[in-house]
Sequence to fold (402 residues):
Amino acid sequence: MSGAALRIPRPVSGRGQVQAVAGCYFVASFAALGLPPYLTEILPELGDRHARWAGVLYVVPTVFGALFAPLWGRLADRFGRKRLLLRAQLGLTLSFLLAGWADSLVTFTLALVLQGILGGTFAASNGYLGAALEGPALSRALTLMQGSARAALVFAPIVVGSLSGWLSPHRQYALLAVLPLTAALLLAALPEPTATQAPVSRLERAAAAGPTVSLKALYGLEFAFVFSTVVSFPYLIALVEERLPGTSPLLSGVLFALPHLVYLVAALTVHSAFQDRPRTGIALGFLCIALGLAGHGVAGSLATLVAVRLLLGVGLTLGLVCLQVLAAECVKGRAPGGLFGSLEFFSKAGAVAAGVAAAVGTARFGPAAPVVTGSAAATATALAALLPPLNHRIRWSRRCPH
Fold:
């Protein structure tokens, strides 16, 4: 049976709907991404005078988000992706209100736990898009979603810092709860994506879509990518201060943001260049990450730090974009909610493992340890992606022609 005979058309959301989903994720992410860097200012107001629990509470939403993401994904496939996307936005609203009104460390911790359990807007948004789009259109939409995440990561801490002169970061949780609530109201106007693709067997899927990356390999690449990039985040400012004493907070913030700005500028161009060659893009991405992080360990001037941050940004962009291409290939013939929920689990697991590794390594070897760890992990993954046995097991292939 030919691929054309097996292919069943699916209604594709217009560009405006994709932009609406990405925009709503950006809006709803402000509190989730912008306020955690200020935990050291928030916790003293709640009785933790020296903010000893900041490191633990930083990862609490991530841990519980990872545990519950697969469940919410399966429920979305069963009860509707739009309903579960709305649930995620309203869940963030509730948890942010509780965090902003909390008057004790216990209540604030409970709010962060609920944020992890009831949130999951990224996986829910991807599940919605996965039910409405396929192939290059889906991978391009997922690339746009990652752009929303990078933009929020860059701009949210700046906005929170600007508002802190009028309202403490603690109370900003309650103020910023209006953002996911607004996103939910906007998303309510979008249609429920209709899953018109009939279930097919594994052999039929292979005949229709051609060989693609296995789920296990995709999950492994996602974990390795998040681990190798995130491990450098927590102690980057300390590393910059060690290498360039007297660096202003503004310059440190710009250095932190540079890789994410590279993604915002280059992601769509990279998608066009590598949508047919994700294997090449993944290998190059991990190689650039490895070299960029290794460069952090020896950089001794502002110019070299800028150069290695930009090189890390190139790797970040290549890796993220090509992972979205592979995810779009994997979702063909599968329930999108379950797949993206599971992918979110491995992503968050990689972030938690990176945080632990960064804390342990820094405590024992200093602030350069995380970048060395990340470089080693990225190098090992790049080599593994190029080995013939892995290539046969993952079954890399070019995107099938339509």
In short: Residues 1-12, 195-211, 389-402 have pLDDT under 50 and may be disordered. The chain has 19 helices and no strands. The two ends are 15 Å apart (CA to CA). The chain has two domains: 13-187, 202-394.
